[in-house]
């Protein structure tokens, strides 16, 4: 399966680390990070290097970024969304994945937000940590053996 990794911009390094753990634990699957995989935007390097502000509408082509992300979601079999702090883009990705593309959505969110009604409404599954997601998938693999 191909999983799109939705997450807030400020969590991209943390999620990248988790993505590598997932790839190692489940090599049969593909995990796509919109910031670093699939011909990542050069603007990410400029933002990471402090040359550009991510909110600069003149330096960042928002329409290009959104269409790129939506295309990656469309090409995926499911979405794994990490919800933390202000994550407007992540929430829009979850809603588009669920309503437009009719994909399963797996949400990783810390307590107490794992019980939020909007997340429960759109999520196929909710995990309270990356470790609990990995453990559940390993258990499922062992049971389907």
Describe it:
- The chain has helices spanning 12-25, 42-48, 62-74, 88-100, 117-122, 130-144, and strands at 2-6, 30-32, 78-83, 105-109, 125-127.
- With 145 residues, it is α/β, with parallel strands linked by helices.
- It has a 5-stranded parallel β-sheet with strand order 2-1-3-4-5.
- Helix 1 (12-25) links the parallel strand 1 and strand 2.
- The two termini are 17 Å apart.
- The model has no long low-confidence stretch (mean pLDDT 89).
Short précis:
The chain has 145 residues and is α/β, with parallel strands linked by helices. The protein contains six helices and five strands.
Topology summary:
Layout: E1 2-6, H1 12-25, E2 30-32, H2 42-48, H3 62-74, E3 78-83, H4 88-100, E4 105-109, H5 117-122, E5 125-127, H6 130-144
Parallel strand pairs: 1-2, 1-3, 3-4, 4-5
């Amino acid at each position: 399966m191909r999983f799109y990794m939705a997450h807030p911009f400020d969590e991209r390094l943390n999620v990248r680390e988790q993505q590598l753990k997932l790839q190692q634990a489940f090599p049969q699957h593909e995990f796509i990070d919109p910031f670093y995989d699939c011909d990542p935007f050069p603007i990410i390097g400029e933002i990471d290097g402090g040359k550009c502000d991510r909110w600069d509408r003149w330096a960042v082509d928002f329409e290009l970024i959104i269409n790129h992300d939506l295309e990656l979601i469309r090409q995926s079999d499911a979405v794994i969304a990490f919800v933390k702090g202000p994550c407007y883009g992540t929430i829009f990705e979850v809603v588009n994945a669920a309503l437009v593309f009719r994909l399963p959505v797996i949400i990783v969110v810390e307590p107490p937000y794992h019980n939020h009604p909007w997340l429960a409404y759109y999520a196929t599954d909710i995990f309270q940590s990356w470790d609990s997601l990995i453990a559940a998938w390993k258990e499922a693999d062992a049971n389907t053996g």
